[in-house]
From TrEMBL:
Transmembrane segments: none annotated. Belongs to the pectinacetylesterase family. It is an enzyme of class 3 (hydrolase). The keyword Membrane does not apply. Its main location: secreted. This is Pectin acetylesterase. Keywords: Cell wall, Cell wall biogenesis/degradation, Hydrolase, Secreted, Signal. It comes from the Eukaryota. Hydrolyzes acetyl esters in homogalacturonan regions of pectin. In type I primary cell wall, galacturonic acid residues of pectin can be acetylated at the O-2 and O-3 positions. Decreasing the degree of acetylation of pectin gels in vitro alters their physical properties. Its EC number is 3.1.1.-. InterPro entries: PAE/NOTUM (IPR004963).
Amino acid sequence: MAPWVVLAVVLALSVGAGAGAARGAEPWWNETQVYGTQANSGGSNGVFVGLTLIQSAAAKGAVCLDGSLPGYHLHRGFGSGANSWLVNLEGGGWCNDVSSCVFRKGSRRGSSNHMERQLQFTGIMSNRREENPDFYNWNRVKVRYCDGGSFTGDGSNAAAGLYFRGQRIWQAAMDDLMAQGMRYANQALLSGCSAGGVSTILHCDEFRGLFPSNTRVKCLADAGMFLDTVDVSGRREMRSFFSGIVRLQDSGRSLPRSCTSRMDKTSCFFPQNVLPNIQTPTFILNTAYDVWQLQQSVAPKAADPQGLWSKCRTNHAFCNSNQLQFLQGFRNQMLDAVRGFSASRQNGVFINSCFAHCQSERQDTWYANDSPRLGNRRIADAVGDWFFERGDAKYTDCAYPCDGTCHHLVFRGDH
């Protein structure tokens, strides 16, 4: 077992069909912030950035689940980065039925009334050169996530007081940022982790379309490769869950037509089916043993009524040989899903064999002395090499337990 372990002390997960599977933001893991770890920002000294509500959004019907205004946090660039833009789409799970979305709208994941007024920018968002050497002086934006559908929905439920307006929020945020100066960008990067990683893949080519053809535009999806995989009981928990999102939020119209023209809408919510047709250069950052997927789609409680996976779910060190073999099969599916994509010269990959989830927004995994490495390159090094075309950026780890640089997530409880 690798020496670096991050203890996550907050875990409130309940995955099954219906509302129990997705109860908004709090019972579902808030991927970008809830690693209630012993160092909540991974040791960063990054700046705190205030929330800006998008005042023009209401007239466009671009509102959060509860009808409140959407928003973002913008920290201006300077020096050589004054005309460069990094737009990060916040993650934080989904809601897939009326009851889970009603629960969610009472939280920061469904209402700007509950959002933090300031967020600390860490990892790829940091404003410190020693923490983020390639992007520290860019204009850096975190677009808050309050629609529960990865910025894809376009509907409503009047009886429940719910607005599914993710696609409109995306457009309103981009319009506002373009007016704030992003239209003059000489280079731009769209990023996001977890549900934000899904959003990044689904909106990548749209983002490219905002800019002139001579602007360098690329996309970075962190921990967004949610696989259409069979769980330990032989069911497809994630497919059932995503199907609920697409139906409830009427997301189909917003999904990439390059996918929906050849596959059903639910399949096109899975990044693995969108990747083959993305035209914009994209970087996939993922672990081969994503702990969110281990807990929610590979071995969810609903698929494990006898609790045979309960210890393995919370700490990989407790996985027995049969369980590890099952997880090696999951790793193989992950590698298969990106094989064709990674063959393209314009794309980049960094898939390490860690039990983790989201590595670009935490300082300890993005860029620190003891950060995870592949080919002696930290994640920040690999992403920078790819974006600025300084060299090859295709890194795939050997199978667990060969990597001693991982920052594994270990949970205190399985609730």
